[in-house]
Amino acid sequence: MASATLVVLSVGAAACAGPDDKSAAGGGGKPQRGGTLTVLNSSPQSDFDPARLYTSGGGNVPSLVFRTLTTRNREDGAEGTKVVPDLAEGLGKPSKNATVWTYKIKKGVKFEDGTPVTTKDIKYGIERSFAAELSGGAPFLRDWLIGGATYQGPYKDKKGLDSVETPDDQTIVFRLNKPVGDFDYVATQTSFAPVPKAKDKGTKYEEHPVSTGPYKVVKNSGDGERLQLERNPHWSAETDAERKAYPDKIDVRSGLNSSVINQRLSASQGADAAAITTDTNLGPAELAKVSGDKKLAAQVGTGHFGYTNYLAFNPKVKPFDDPKVRQAIAYAVDRTSVINAAGGSSLAEPATTFLPNQESFGYTKFDHFPAGASGNAKKAKELLKEAGHKDGLTITLTHSNDKNFETSPEIATALQDALKKAGITVKLQGLEDNDYEDKVHDAKDEPGLFLAHWGADWPSGGPFLAPIFDGRQIVEDGYNFNSSFLNDKSVNQEIDEINQLTDHAAAAKRWGALDKKIGAKALNVPLFHPVYKRLYGKDVKNVVISDWTGVLDVSQVAVK
Asked: How far is CA 218 from its chain centroid?
């Protein structure tokens, strides 16, 4: 799946003009402090509790309220895939085998009530994320912390989690049961946000979580459908170089139809002139209309996120147990028609690797089964003949009926037409989205061929390749993502060895090499990487879109 996501100044005097503008968006000129930013979204910001949010890089709206040990570098493009300190003074100090990580936090960070933040608050915030009643957050700490698998959270276990140590108020130590070279990236999750134990109200904490960021929650109604934020008087730019905090207020309005959101941003009337969206893309028809209007075209942000759409095989189902059949399908795919079905080249880029085409993931260019732009039916037929299907074959492709331009009927039909040229008859099985998700992730009921997608939890090869290809992550009872049921000892061993590396560039090279090795097995057919196109209001300035999240960073926006 991103987000991809740090002068002593009193709050009243904090940088009136702010730092130099990164973008001429919204009329140009330096961004100014003040005004109200409106966020128009389709999905409510539900479960606004740091324990329950599943974020990467600190999230978007959540990162305005919840600071974490580390966060994403708030810069455009590839620079934004770097992890940087947030509450911590620097990045973590790992042991030689990356099983122990130590952080020192900054002095002077306070909660919205003026209370100093200590590492004991961070430890308590992490422990809350283990409570069953606060489920929904990222699962990594449960899997990686010593004792995490059986710990039930502070409400049931008052003793706490021994593998998170706080020897003093500025130091926190994590003891892991396996090497995790990417731990700095994991520490961007909101489960690392400090929570004052005295203010914890359990499941009701989300109504007024205690802020450490530049804004505090003043109203949360409709389970995050309307979220109103105002300045946190105890936040200081001295301890936070990442968040710019230009607007005085943030008004998040959700539950809106996507077409309505884009209409309102296009019109930019009244408060909508200073509005953005953090979850609504332009569709193909909307993009065509916007592209024809120079004024509107200047109000479109373009982003890339670590995400791959692909055809998944289940080798347990015939004829996909035969590598030659899988290779034939890979050769037959017409990526041009698939990209057109996904909305065109402005919204999708062709993929021949499973890893996204970004350096931070370890992208290594290869194409084991070159189909060209429009498919290689001749080569596909040759392979089918070798596999004993000289007269072709008939297969079923499972897809979602949801109109998402990813796993939807448009993509399935494009593939059906392309494979027909190679003598492969494709029957389409469309399922309602919930039924589709349940079926394709059920190890016992998984179809032989289906449309799938995967996005990164952080911009590294590990969270991209391991869940899909590590045989030890096959889940027989529950949601399974290793759809090819690959359990190759050499692949598993390489994953373990790379996970010990704390040098991200060195690890990236090896993730790329592993992607190439696995790709030769034809366990899936990469189709395309999405491109995000999102409108923003005409008065919005300082548009920053990193390759970590692929979308406009709300913490950088100015409206004056």
From this structure: 27
